[in-house]
Write a structure and sequence with these properties.
- With about 100 residues, the chain is an alpha+beta fold.
- It has a single domain (about 5-90), classed as RelE-like (YaeB-like fold, 2-Layer Sandwich), CATH 3.30.2310.
- It has helices at about 10-25, 30-45, 95, and strands at about 5, 50-55, 60-65, 70-75, 80-90.
- It has a five-stranded mixed sheet with strand order 1-5-4-3-2.
- Helix 1 (about 10-25) runs antiparallel to helix 2 (about 30-45).
- The radius of gyration is 13 Å and the shape is globular.
- The mean pLDDT is about 95.
Length: about 100
Amino acid sequence: MSRRRLVRAEAETDITEAALWYDEREAGLGLELTFEVRAAIQRAFENPLHHLRVRRRPEVRRILARRFPYRIFFIVREDAVIVFAVIHAARHDRHWRERL
């Protein structure tokens, strides 16, 4: 059975805000961050059960962006994989837990 792939609005906002911050530091860096995060999200969709489970109910898993210090959190359901947070590695876990 194939799962639906969803990226919630909050996660899209996380990506946009991070990209804007990086672009302020160096032109084009925000686009690179966006590509890296999107690649990590694609890896999560391709094999969601392969990544670290950080919570049982609901089943939340985490994947890391490769070049940038960002963690992508997603929920695995029978019918869908839902990305709900993209958070800098230095931020506390409560930031993604508040979104559940």
